[in-house]
Amino acid sequence: MRSADLTREIDRWADSGVITTEQANRMRADLPPEASHRSLIAEGLGYVGGSLVAIALIVISSQYWTEIGTAGRLIVVGLSALVLASAGRLTPPRADGPAGRLRAVLWAGATATTFAWLLLAGRDLLGLNAEEAMAVAAAGAVICASAFWAAHRHPLQHVVAWLSLLVMAAALVDLLPGPDLLPWAGIWATGLAWGLLSWGEVIRPAHLGRVLGALAAVAAAATLAQAGWEALLAAGTVFALVVAAVALRDLVVLVVAAAGALVIVPAVTSAYFPGSVTAALATLTVGVVLVGAAVAVARGRLGQANGRLGRANGGTTPTPAAATAVAAAAVVLLLSAAGILLATV
């Protein structure tokens, strides 16, 4: 129901004596503001303008890229980043509603174009090789995305900062000699650390952070799933996420873990038990465990709802220790760095 409809209902209740005038005023104050047509039009125009900027960049890069030279390329991409960042800065600083969405999209585009500018500058201006230019550009994107996220606590800024950090982790590991899949170990460690920091509510919103961390860890583990330590890492990741999802009553993290299990478990069992009935039995066991975990999460979510009702009547809720989360994330990153360095020897 729209806020205007609710306002009319509140007025009718107040006129008929169902609620007092003071109660009606409090109820009206709690109603969410409705987005005006002007805000929606401005949001749509902003999206169209951003799309035109992207189309112009594609046309220039496909037809005139070599003709405009290094300076021209840097100017075009740099001005695009500046325009998008400035437009986002001039947008009203609301975290929700059309203005908030528009600012989030504009600053996401500004982060992407800043990354592209740094990549061009590193390769064409500084003479860096592809790996070095990627690392420099990713580090700059992390700084840019983090600044935008600090200024605008929107979920899209959260996702852009997370993605930028994953790219930087992979790019830094790629600078080291080693197997081609080694950068995925950096993504795995970064995703796991992100999830731990979100569990400790160092990164907020915590639920979105946990889901993003689980996605990164599962994607990296599935890519690394082979015979050897990679298979143990992949299987351990899925197991740990299932346990964490049950403990936190987080159904979305459990779904991410289940999706990873669909890829990782057959790969691991086939690597260790090729052509054996053990592989099928192991897959069956994992399936049964996931069903049990889903039931536990569903029952736990019901318990959480009852717990919230109890806390509303005067109870308290425990919060995870941020210091523990930071320490655990630091241990994960240090051990992962040591493992990556050993893999390069």
TrEMBL record:
Keywords, in A-Z order: Membrane, Transmembrane, Transmembrane helix
Transmembrane segments annotated in the record for this chain: 45-65, 71-90, 102-121, 133-152, 159-176, 182-200, 207-225, 231-248, 253-273, 279-298, 319-343
Ranges of residues in domain DUF2157: 11-122
Presence of the UniProt keyword Ligase in the record: no
Coiled coil: none
InterPro entries: DUF2157
Pfam families registered for this protein in UniProt: DUF2157
Protein name as catalogued: DUF2157 domain-containing protein
